[in-house]
Specification:
Blueprint: E1 5-12, E2 19-27, E3 35-41, E4 47-52, E5 55-60
Antiparallel strand pairs: 1-2, 2-3, 3-4, 4-5
Length: 62
Amino acid sequence: MKVPITTPLTVDLSCDKRRITAGVIEMKPEGKLTRTIDYGNGECDGTVTVSIGGRTYTITRL
């Protein structure tokens, strides 16, 4: 599956856990709705927003 990056991803190596801190990707599993994954605005907070079919979910990674 190709995963298009719609907004460039930013990795912040200074966070306590190296992580993607900004950017947006879109995933389209076969036969499923598109998932838009937004890594945020550059903060090291571990918060990711996932949108599927008009519904939005916020996930906080530890």
